[in-house]
Structure of unspecific monooxygenase:
Amino acid sequence: MEPVVVLVLCLSCLLLLSLWKQRSGKGKLPPGPTPLPIIGNMLQLGVKDISKSLSKLSKVYGPVFTLYFGMKPTVVLHGYEAVKEALIDLGEEFSGRGSFPVPERANKGHGIVFSNGKRWKEIRRFSLMTLRNFGMGKRSIEDRVQEEARCLVEELRKTNASPCNPTFILGCAPCNVICSIILQNRFDYKDQNFLNLLELLNENANILSSQWVQICNNFPAFIDYFPGSHNKVLKNGANMKSYILEKIKEHQKSLDINNPRDFIDCFLIKMEQEKHNQQSEFTIENLISAAFDIFAAGTATTSTTLRYGLLLLIKYPEVAAKAQEEIDHVIGRYRSPCMQDRSHMPYMDAVVHEIQRYIDLIPTNLPHAVTRDTKFRNYLIPKGTTILTSLSSVLQDDKEFPNPGVFDPGHFLDESGNFKKSDYFMPFSAGKRICVGEGLARMELFLFLTTILQKFTLKSVVDPKDVDTTPVVRGFASLPPSYQLCFIPV
Ligand code: HEM
């Protein structure tokens, strides 16, 4: 036999042996399809729509199964019961962050999204408190969102009711809310610094959902040895961080500890309070990364939801008209909508929930990891194993939401038209890692959409029947097709 063939055979045997050892080693992992050497179960997963492949596999292996992404075992949890049992009932055990090599290279374990342990707990708790207005000085978060909603309406007015693609304008508003929270002030939509920031964020969001980056995340060796778009993510990340550092230096010069203006000031004050603690997590590195995380996690998510939301409202003009009737009745034409209005607006509340349920923005959540060897059902999952939770399987559950593939605000209304809460509403995930920006994002979605519908009638450029709402990408995120609409002032 040729020496090369012998070598290939030996290598394959070694790989199979190592996979077999991993599967039957320390833990008792759930069952799953047999993996191939090196590529694992990649061939069984449609890269275009992973959550659909997971759904198919759950029909064969049940709600808890193991898949190999490359050589790495990943436990998949499918359906409300399994997701809730892990993320909520065993919250501490399932609160680790699973590896995501490309963005991890940029953040090096600092900040919130990719940190773990004590660092994650402390920076997360601080960020949550700050985003809930504790210590943020005189201006509330709601005030900042309302200001942006008014500016958004002015920008939309400039389109003069002619057909436009709303992507850019709807991208500016959520980014500006984060600017106001982190950097004190919003920017004009034409400001060059603002446009640069938006460009870096958009480019990174697009590259991170590309198939190449999915490959790099499963085969981390590619990141170091191959050229490719993942290097651009790292470069853009470094540019954004230099900008944030520059802003931190400006803040340090004008800091008044009795009058914090924004997130950076609050963090700098905490750093000052802990300056004698050698183990303190309140360091410049964690401040830069936490600010970066909030920008990255809080911009494209909210703007894509708004963009997808308007697409659904032009597809279903009867839903938009009913929401407008409620707005007219509760708020009228002139007063700025505020969060107190929401409790008197069950229909609008249901519309916003249904938009988030229907679009299923992050179908397979961010990867989690177990923080210790964990007994789950009849299995033993070794510490550090990656956990993938299908949020799709919860948001599209057909017992909780009859006809889950149909956009129907009735999914969140009872027979008398009151708002009906659902434990299955998990677009922000659940448990200890639940989105830090949930409160902020829900405020933005309610205030932006209500303000838009208060001031404009939305008009499709094609017959609503022909508006296609199928996502064009359903990888890490679900993205709507590109479209145009007219904002007709009321
Ligand atoms: C519609 C808008 C949004 C959606 C659908 C969304 C969804 C999510 C999801 C699914 C996760 C992963 C949770 C997990 O690991 O289990 C997450 C994490 C996170 N989100 Fe959001 N998000 C949105 C807006 C925001 C905003 C506005 C911010 C800004 C503050 C934000 C900041 C974060 C952060 C910092 C994390 C990491 C949390 C951690 O690892 O502890 N998100 N988000």
The pocket of protoporphyrin IX containing FE is lined by residues 97, 112-113, 124, 131, 293-294, 297-298, 301-302, 305, 361-362, 365-366, 427-429, 433-437, 440-441 (CB under 6 Å).
